[in-house]
Inverse folding.
């Protein structure tokens, strides 16, 4: 059936009065573009592939500034405290977190969800923005991915520890065994094992493959014999051959696509831990996308905070520009709005359901023993980030750091609200308790932050924090001008 | 403004007239529930597609995407479907007592319905519908009319204004689509609730809008219009459709799996209606044509930029969205799938009418948004 | 056969120069061409005549394999090998299998993409390539571009260095480097395969040993084993607390098992007042017969005559229940003996439920009647 038989002669647009060719008009208008349309550069100053190498790859060879050592001392101390309390928990048993009610698992679960969430920003920047070809991601992707891996490592501690006998955690893997039993695949906790395990493996592989060309650059620049050997092994003999780049690019694109699927699925599976239950205020169908948005939200705030420190202390302001920070702050704002929608939907649906238990649980969020936590969460997650509607706040260190810290606290407390408020008064009155964290809980949380920042500091010292090969590819003059075949 | 040689194509007018006759007859001959279910179905379907297209336009302004500038006029024109859809929606309010238990006076005796009478009652239902339609039309005015005018004025201020309005539109859109989902679909079974439902309707609507854009775009290319749009642009559109097919499937599965898992009577009856008897086959068919087929059809790199594949997948996605909205609405009013001359009449009327409308819009503004200051970048876009 | 392989490397300053010279050099057919750059160059694959990478197809296939593997494994484990109903959900509930299936799909696909790209397609790690060991590599990974010409793989001729060098200079190379390396022995042409197999074997061995240690040896080391030693009493455990050294104790005297009512009758005379609560039905007599045969016949004989198979061995004198004395006994006294024992006979109460005891009483009565039948019984 031909279209013209059905549609007849189509109406055509009116002829344009001017005879200007398409696309010519904007030449004269570039000088009068409104401020919010002005194109922003992705790097400032003169940057060439060589200068990029000199700037970024020089760090592993140089002695770090004193402030690095001070920071490392602090984070290592925190980490050791956490490790000590971790061992104490194993030795004495989970009872040191409190006993006799499900709500005493609170800190463990909160920390797990919190850290997995922080990791998602890295994958989003690395993978999703790669798929959407957002060039601004190139300078920050490597660091963000590294943060993902470290965050997932921090996260994995908690489910590992909370089994009580972490050396038996391998029970969760479905291998043929003498016990004659298998893990229960219907349980969201087992889904978590696979999801977080896959997430860690995929992130590690994605990060490492992306690093290979940069390690090759470091291999070829270094004078130290020891380093040369290490980098040679790690670079696996990468030599920049075009036939290798071909497979590399394809694999990288596929990995980015697969990692995108993971961003959605991993935190959704974590949300299933709650949403598949019938605990009031946990069984809300919006949990999967709400958790994913929250993860991206918290992660971006953490990335912004770390990148501010990185660009200042490592003199990378010409590569991690104000524009990068501003765009990330806009993402934080967008995610805050999505969180606002989610909170609204949760509260509205609780009312809409007319279910007395659900309504009671939601009332507990804004009033009662933990009402302060609910208000803290709403202020930190929804109200304070609204500052980012104002350009001044998006571009000022003070406001950026303030909002990022507020978001980090707010997102931690959001999980507190979800877990503690629902569990401290769920369907079984014999489980009702007023929850108070123990010093062990707090110490392990502090320790996880210590671990995370220790790894970040070590990463910045040892490996290139910017994906030089990716940034080189988008510098002006880096790609041939003509003779290209079009897709 | 329009080309004087074009006139109304007879086949479509005939189809529309036949459909109209059938619709009037079904008002007389078929029970009111079925009639109004069809009416509401077409309102929801066309509204989600139209506002989905407006969402595409706003999204492009929000993230300052350049690759999509050459194709932006297509969703802008499709979004104008909101204009005929608005009265359809207002008329659909007449369905209230027939279809929506919460609007009936008996609802006062039901503890759950009475508790939320302030939401379910007809006056507030009407107010919300009017607000949603007004907001949609207002956004249409701001985004589309301004864009078409920019063809003549070449004023970059419009682009700046659109970029400033885009985030606000997103917020208004989120609440509008949620309101439509809860009012018009969830309202059919007011004891049921699912807070992901707005996201679900968004996912389906956005996907249908993308497909309608692709279909219209490919059609124009076939007519030797929009020849500047190349495979690179098509690849990006194909990727979007692929990605959001996965997104829709994820949302649909999440809602189903959570309700299945907890098995609470409050929630699971909605799925029972859709898995019992004749509806089970429809559910399976929905999963296949809304996820399996497009996922595998668009999985390779080539397929995402090949015109023939994109056209077929776009048609399949539109049919999938039609099946989706049918699956959302009809099981709440009938125990077995209904499909006979009333449904066909409604389809004839509304499909022909929509195509006729879109055909008219092909003269509105230039095919390329020639006033956009970044059009050249968009045309030069390479993967 | 050539003793050494020669690679001629020409270094360029710009990507345009690189692309242009590729076209020129390919037409001269000097040998195997490879281009090098610090980052991927658009359009270079077409210039070099490369085919599309097959990684996409590999990933798709392995992704599907992953999905089916996960689904199959979950289904077999949950529905066939050890079916359990959890949370009221059928063992075959597919909905619960989807999240893991999705993750395993991504896992398989990712490892295929990453490791396939590295090991299969790029044949890395490989540290012996002449360009890697050249001086130009530092320029390549920094900011310059290069073309390397090697003799074609199937060609027996050596590369003509002069011709290659001249061609490269003509095409715009700024620096030329010639790398001569001894050709690897043809016997080891499958080095990569050998290395890969060796690597796999080593990883299997290492992971096997590690797994054995983690699963078998580590958990029983202290302090992990501390939980196995607990301050509680385990079955058959010795005890230093009780005099007889056993931790398992008999129940306190007077303990009543569930389902039993203790007998409030102190003596056999008082038991005479107990009435048999069971009706004399065929089922009851069947039970009585079975239990009598099990427990009583060994001593009292199959016909309750007091001559059973154990009598000779024990030298005891079980009661002849056919005697007049016992035919005159009320049911309750027979019941009392079953429960409490009499003389040498131990109590049978622990092995017989109340109903079984009364059924035996019925059966004994039937036996007595059978041995002393009256005329009217056979009419």
């Amino acid at each position: 059936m031909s279209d013209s038989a059905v549609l007849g002669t189509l109406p055509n647009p009116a002829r344009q009065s001017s005879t200007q060719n398409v696309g010519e008009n904007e030449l004269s208008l570039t000088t009068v573009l409104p401020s919010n349309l002005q194109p922003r550069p992705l790097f400032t100053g003169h940057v060439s592939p060589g200068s990029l190498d000199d700037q970024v790859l020089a760090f592993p060879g140089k002695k770090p500034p004193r402030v690095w050592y001070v920071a490392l001392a602090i984070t290592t101390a925190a980490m050791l405290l956490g490790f000590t309390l971790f061992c104490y928990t194993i030795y004495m048993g989970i009872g040191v977190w409190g006993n006799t009610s499900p709500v005493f698992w609170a800190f463990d679960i909160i920390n797990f969800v919190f850290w997995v969430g922080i990791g998602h920003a890295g994958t989003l920047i690395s993978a999703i923005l790669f798929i959407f070809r957002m060039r601004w991601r190139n300078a920050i992707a490597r660091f963000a991915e590294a943060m993902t891996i470290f965050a997932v490592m921090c996260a994995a501690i908690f489910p590992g520890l909370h089994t009580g006998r972490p050396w038996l955690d391998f029970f969760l893997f479905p291998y043929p065994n003498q016990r004659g039993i298998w893990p229960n695949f219907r349980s969201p906790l087992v889904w978590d094992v696979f999801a977080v395990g896959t997430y860690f493996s995929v992130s590690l592989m994605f990060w490492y493959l992306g690093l290979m060309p940069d390690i090759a650059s470091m291999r070829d620049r270094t004078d130290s014999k020891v380093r040369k050997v290490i980098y040679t092994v790690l670079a696996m003999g990468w030599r920049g051959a075009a036939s290798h780049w071909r497979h590399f690019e394809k694999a990288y694109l596929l990995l980015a696509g697969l990692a995108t699927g993971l961003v959605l699925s991993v935190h959704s599976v974590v949300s299933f831990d709650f949403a598949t239950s019938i605990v009031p205020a946990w069984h809300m169908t919006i949990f999967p996308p709400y958790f994913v948005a929250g993860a991206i939200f918290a992660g971006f705030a953490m990335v912004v905070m770390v990148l501010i420190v990185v660009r200042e202390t490592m003199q990378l302001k010409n590569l991690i520009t104000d524009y990068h920070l501003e765009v990330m702050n806009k993402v934080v704002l967008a995610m805050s709005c999505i969180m606002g929608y989610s909170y609204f939907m949760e509260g509205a649906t609780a009312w809409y359901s007319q279910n007395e238990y659900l309504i009671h649980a939601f009332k507990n969020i804004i009033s009662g023993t933990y009402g302060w936590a609910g208000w803290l969460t709403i202020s930190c997650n929804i109200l304070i980030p609204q500052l980012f509607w104002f350009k001044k706040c998006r571009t000022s260190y003070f406001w950026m750091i303030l909002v990022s810290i507020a978001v980090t606290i707010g997102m931690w407390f959001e999980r507190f609200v979800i877990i503690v408020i629902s569990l401290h008064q769920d369907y079984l009155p014999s489980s009702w308790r007023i929850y108070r964290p123990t010093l062990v809980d707090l110490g392990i949380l502090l320790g996880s932050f210590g671990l995370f920042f220790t790894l970040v500091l070590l990463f910045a010292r040892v490996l290139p924090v910017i994906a030089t090969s990716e940034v080189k590819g988008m510098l002006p003059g880096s790609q041939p001008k003509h003779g290209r075949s079009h897709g | 403004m329009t080309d004087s040689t074009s006139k109304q194509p007879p086949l479509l007018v005939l189809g529309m007239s036949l459909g109209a006759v059938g619709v009037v007859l079904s008002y007389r001959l078929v029970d009111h529930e079925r009639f109004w279910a069809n009416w509401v179905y077409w309102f929801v379907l066309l509204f989600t597609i139209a506002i989905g297209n407006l969402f595409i336009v706003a999204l492009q302004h929000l993230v300052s995407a350049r690759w999509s500038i050459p194709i932006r006029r297509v969703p802008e024109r499709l979004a104008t479907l909101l204009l005929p859809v608005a009265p359809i929606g207002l008329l659909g309010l007449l369905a209230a007592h027939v279809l929506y238990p919460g609007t009936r006076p008996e609802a006062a005796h039901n503890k759950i319905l009475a508790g939320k009478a302030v939401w379910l009652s007809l006056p507030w239902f009407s107010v919300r519908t009017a607000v949603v339609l007004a907001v949609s039309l207002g956004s249409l005015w701001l985004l589309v009319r301004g864009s078409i005018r920019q063809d003549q004025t070449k004023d970059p201020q419009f682009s700046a204004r659109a970029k400033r309005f885009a985030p606000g539109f997103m917020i208004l859109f989120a609440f509008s689509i949620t309101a439509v989902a809860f009012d018009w679909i969830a309202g059919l079974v007011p004891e049921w609730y699912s807070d992901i439902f707005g996201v679900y309707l968004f996912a389906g609507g956005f996907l249908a809008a993308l497909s309608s854009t692709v279909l219209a775009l490919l059609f124009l290319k076939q007519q030797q219009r929009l020849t500047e749009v190349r495979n690179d642009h098509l690849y990006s559109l194909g990727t979007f459709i692929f990605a959001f097919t996965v997104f829709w499937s994820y949302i649909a599965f999440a809602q189903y799996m959570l309700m299945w898992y907890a098995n609470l009577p409050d929630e699971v009856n909605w799925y029972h209606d859709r898995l019992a008897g004749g509806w089970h086959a429809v559910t399976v068919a929905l999963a296949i044509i809304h996820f399996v087929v497009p996922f595998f059809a668009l999985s390779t790199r080539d397929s995402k930029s090949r015109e023939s594949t994109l056209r077929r997948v776009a048609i399949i996605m539109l049919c999938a969205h039609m099946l989706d909205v049918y699956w959302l609405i009809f099981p709440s009013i009938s125990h077995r799938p209904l499909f006979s001359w009333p449904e066909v009449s409604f389809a004839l009327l509304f499909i022909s009418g929509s195509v006729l409308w879109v055909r008219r819009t092909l003269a509105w503004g230039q095919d390329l948004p020639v006033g956009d200051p970044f059009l050249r970048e968009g045309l030069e876009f390479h993967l | 056969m050539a003793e050494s392989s020669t690679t001629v490397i020409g270094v360029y300053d710009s990507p345009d120069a690189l692309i242009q010279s590729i076209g020129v050099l390919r037409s001269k057919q000097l040998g195997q061409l490879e281009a090098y750059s610090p980052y991927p160059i658009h359009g270079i694959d077409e210039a070099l005549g490369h085919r599309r990478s097959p990684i996409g197809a590999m990933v798709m296939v392995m992704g599907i394999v992953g999905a089916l593997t996960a689904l199959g494994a979950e289904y077999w484990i949950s529905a066939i090998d050890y079916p359990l109903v959890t949370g009221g959900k059928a063992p075959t509930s597919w909905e619960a299998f989807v999240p893991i299936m999705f993750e395993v799909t991504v896992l398989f696909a990712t490892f295929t993409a990453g490791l396939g790209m590295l090991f299969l397609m790029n044949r890395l790690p490989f540290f012996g390539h002449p360009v890697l060991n050249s001086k130009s590599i530092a320029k390549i990974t920094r900011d310059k571009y290069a073309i390397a010409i090697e003799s074609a793989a199937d060609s027996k001729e050596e590369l003509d260095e002069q011709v290659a060098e001249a061609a490269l200079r003509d095409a715009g190379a700024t620096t030329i480097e010639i790398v001569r390396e001894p050709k690897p022995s043809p016997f080891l042409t499958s080095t990569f395969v050998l290395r890969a197999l060796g690597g796999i074997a080593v990883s299997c061995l290492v992971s096997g040993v590690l797994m054995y240690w983690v699963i078998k040896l580590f958990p029983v080391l202290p302090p992990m084993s501390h939980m196995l030693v607990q301050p509680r009493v385990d079955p058959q455990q010795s005890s230093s607390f009780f005099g007889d050294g056993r931790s398992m104790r008999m129940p306190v005297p007077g303990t009543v098992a569930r389902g039993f009512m203790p007998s409030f009758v102190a003596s056999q005379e008082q038991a005479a007042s107990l009435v048999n609560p069971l009706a004399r039905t065929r089922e009851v007599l069947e039970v009585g017969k079975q239990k009598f045969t099990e427990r009583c016949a060994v001593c009292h004989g199959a016909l309750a005559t007091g001559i059973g198979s154990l009598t000779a061995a024990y030298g005891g004198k079980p009661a002849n229940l056919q005697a007049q004395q016992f035919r005159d006994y009320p049911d309750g006294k027979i019941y009392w003996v079953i429960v409490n024992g009499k003389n040498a006979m131990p109590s049978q109460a622990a092995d017989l439920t109340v109903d079984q005891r009364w059924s035996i009483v019925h059966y004994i009565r039937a036996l007595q009647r059978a041995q002393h039948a009256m005329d009217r019984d056979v009419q």
